[in-house]
Amino acid sequence: MGTNRTAVRRPAGRAVRAAAGVAIVSALALTAAACGGTPPPGDQPGGDTETAAGPDFTQRGPIKYVQGKDTSGNLQNQIDAWNKDNPDEKVELVELPDNADQQRAQMIQNAQTRSPEYTVLSLDVVWTAEFAANSYVDPLPADQFDMASFLQPTVDGATYFDQLYGIPGTGDGGLLYYRSDLLKEAGVAQPPTTWQEMKDACAAVKSKVSDAKDMGCFAGQYQKYEGLTVNVAEAVDSAGGALVDAQGVPTANSPQSVEGLNFLGESFADGTIPKEAITWQEEQGRQAFQDGKLIFHRNWPYAFALMSKSDGSSKVNGKFEVAPLPGKDGPGVSSLGGHNFAISSFAENKGTALDFIKYMTSAETQKANTLATSLAPTLTALYDDPELNKKYPYMPTLKASIESAKPRPKVVQYGDVTLAIQDATYPVMQGDSTAADAMNQLQPRLEQLIQR
Predict the structure, then answer these.
(1) Which of 42, 171, 238, 369 has minimal CB crowding within 10 Å?
(2) Are 450 and 244 in contact (CB under 8 A)?
(3) Per DSSP, what are the bridge partners of residue 163?
(4) Cβ(229)–Cβ(243) under 8 Å?
(5) Helices in 392-434 by DSSP H: which ranges?
(6) Which stretches are transmembrane (predicted)?
């Protein structure tokens, strides 16, 4: 099935204008997980250009929306629809690199120079604590959004110390894409729920399907970037461990955490994961799967529409299905992904920015975007939408993945934390370190960074 590039029409009528600003919650740039409660006195979120009454959501005019590279091709359709209805408050798209680490760095650089250049930011869910505590983004008026209509994990990912700093734009849960045609030919009745079942299924396919004997078994994202942190966290969580537990305590060197990382290291060593996958990010893995080089592939929902194209760009159109990620002893656990719309503390025309966020997160816009791109919506009701379920039969699986997903460490110094995880675990993929040694190295570093 091909990608449906449905034009997005703005809902009739201008969005309700933002009311007065919200009270600012002071926040210290903590290095502990921000799960709730009241932060100690410290820097005031929202920058120093606005009063204690809160951000000024009355200013209107042109704005810039900033996000990573749009691989779907649909975003400009949405912006064009807004601009048609709002000629005096046009939105300009600013595309950053598709690498998440580079996106974060450029957004932080803009904030640290207090530049008004960026208005609405597309923030990875894991950046919320860092951007909020450092006053890079404004607190948002929750009473102007129906927050109960969003999937709860996506709301949690936009919240810091019980204050809303973003509105969930897209959700994300890791999914297992698999060659259903090859499994069927090999006599494998069901997709695997455990790592061993996945390896057994690969062995069956390679031995019974002549065209598959040289295919790779499984791959995710293992380049030394944020995707590696995601994949390591998923393996650790899927083995019953955690890099950082729910109370914000590092537990990287627990036996379960070591076992999760060991699965990845052993999979590279025994060929389950192809050697070349050590350089793969999302797009390289997607390309390998849709070129017919992999039996199983871990990726986000966006890949479904691209791999389903019928224009000749995908060799697996109509030949694959989607299942939950496998784990050590049963279904695995996804890392919570997704992006939130946030407003730069140093931006102008924040009234327009707030209305643009309302437009982008409306049910009509989210549904049209999901139909066109397969990106996961954040509104709960859309997972029961008949049209979406007809086009994407995996919607219940995706909803379950997001609802059961575990967040990466929610810490203010997330940039340092994710680099520490990558530095410690990448040598395991290369075969230069054992999982136990890597986790014993990582544990004290996390304890240092996450001071409670």
Answers:
(1) 42
(2) yes
(3) 160
(4) no
(5) 395-404, 414-430
(6) none
Q: For tokens 């046009």, what's the residue?
A: 90
Residue with tokens 């359709």: 77
Residue with tokens 């207090």: 114
Could you give all domains of the chain from N- to C-terminal order, each with its CATH number?
A: 63-171+337-404 (3.40.190.10), 175-335+412-449 (3.40.190.10)
Instruction: Record the tokens describing residue 37, joined without a space.
Output: 């409660």
Residue 292 and residue 361 in contact, taking contact as beta carbons nearer than 8 Å: no
Which residues on neighbouring strands pair with residue 172, listed in sequence order?
337
Task: Determine the 3-state secondary structure of 385 from DSSP.
Answer: coil
- Tokens found for residue 437: 């040694």
What are the pLDDT digits (tens) for 192-226?
999 999 999 999 999 999 999 999 999 999 999 99
- Which DSSP string corresponds to 219-283? E---SSSHHHHHHHHHHHHHTT--SB-TTS-B-TTSHHHHHHHHHHHHHHHTTSS-GGGGG--HH
Q: Which residue has the tokens 């656990």?
A: 333
Residue 360, number of CB atoms within 10 A of its CB? 23
Give this prediction's pTM: 0.83
The whole-number pLDDT of residue 315 equals 98
Q: Are 402 and 172 in contact (CB under 8 A)?
A: yes
CA atoms 192, 195, 198, 203: torsion sign: negative
How far, in whole angstroms, is CA 113 from its chain's centroid? 27
Apex 444 CA angle, 442 and 447, nearest 5: 110
Backbone φ and ψ for 66, nearest 5 degrees, come out as -120, 125
Q: What percent of the chain has pLDDT over 70?
A: 88
Enter the tokens of residue 293. 């080089």
Radius of gyration, CA atoms only, the chain:
22
d(CA 293, CA 306): 16
Provide the angle, in degrees to the nearest 10, between the axes of the packed helices 100-112 and 226-238: 120
Rounded CA gap, 221 and 22, in Å? 40
C-alpha span between 232 and 276 (Å, rounded): 17
Q: Is 144 within 8 Å of 19 (Cβ atoms)?
A: yes
